[in-house]
Amino acid sequence: MFALRPYAPADAKAWDATVRRSRNGNLLHRRGYMDYHSDRFVDRSLLIERDGELVAVFPANLQSKAVISHGGLTYGGLIVTEALQAEAALTVFQMIGAHYRAQGIERLVYKAIPHVFHRYPAEEDLFALHWLGARLVRRDISSVIAMNNPVGYTSMRRRSIRRAGRHAIAMRTVSNAAAFHGLLSDVLRRHDAVPTHSLQELQLLQGRFPSEIVLYQAHCGDELVAGAVAYDFGHIVHMQYMAASQQGRELGALDLLLDTLITTTYASKQYFSFGISTERDGKILNGSLIAQKEHFGARGVVHDFYEWSL
């Protein structure tokens, strides 16, 4: 027998334990990460139990007459344990729909977790959404290296790494993100953009997840020339931010830094993720940005958004 109930702060420990043993959840779905910006969202998350055992959690927030899973996350969706199989998933989604419908919610926007972030196959949700008549409304494209059988770098990228190797560029991990955040902000400003996280938020998350959110910097002498923030999800590592100064671009410092992360630091991972290269809700492809990632041998993985009319 399944039971569904709204999340409450007292459930945080049980929620996190479910995410840790799930097939498709990661640190983004733990409450210590989700709740850093809880003041911006009206939480409508759910817990799903079967015979008193927690078998799934559903991160979600309210936005007008819609529920988003989740507005503050790159991807969300139903986080499931091994116990929740296909027929059960159909039942659970029907319960989720009935729960929100009773609250006057008109639609659910579902940000599916790309399969490379699954520790074990977990696409029962996509079948359930199709079965219930949800429609695909947005698709972003990300770039990922399959580390056990990589395509390999382009000759241009290899030349850039060799060029950078001829300079005295030092790599290090850094706990204080102030200098990198300033560099990142300067780079994004040229594209009329800002970092998703403020400096204070980034340092808060680093403090909460010090072994999983790591800042790597490349220095030429005393000068910061490139950096990257890595999110280590276990079988996959994701580059949350990457940036290089003008000097760093001329030296190829970011290429050298990424090469070190790919071939040494995270060489044992199953996947190396660079993130999306689409803009304006997936309508625009940033060709130069995705080409930079593809030059390392990364290839496309989609991030899908579904809308379910309730």
At a glance:
It contains ten helices and 17 strands. It has helices spanning 12-20, 31-34, 86-102, 124-131, 155-165, 178-189, 199-208, 246-251, 253-265, 287-294; strands spanning 2-6, 42-43, 46-50, 53-58, 61-63, 66-69, 79-80, 107-111, 135-146, 169-174, 213-220, 223-232, 236-244, 271-276, 278-279, 284-285, 299-309. Helix 3 packs across helix 4.
Structure explained in plain terms:
This protein has 310 residues and is α+β, with helices and mostly antiparallel strands. It folds into 2 domains: 2-133, 3-Layer(aba) Sandwich (Aminopeptidase), CATH 3.40.630.30; 144-301, Gcn5-related N-acetyltransferase (GNAT) (Aminopeptidase). It has 10 helices and 17 strands. It has helices spanning 12-20, 31-34, 86-102, 124-131, 155-165, 178-189, 199-208, 246-251, 253-265, 287-294, and strands at 2-6, 42-43, 46-50, 53-58, 61-63, 66-69, 79-80, 107-111, 135-146, 169-174, 213-220, 223-232, 236-244, 271-276, 278-279, 284-285, 299-309. The chain has an 11-stranded mixed β-sheet. A hairpin with a 3-residue loop joins strand 12 and strand 13. Helix 3 crosses helix 4 (124-131) and helix 5 packs across helix 9 (253-265). The chain is elongated, with a radius of gyration of 20 Å. The chain starts with a strand and ends with a strand.
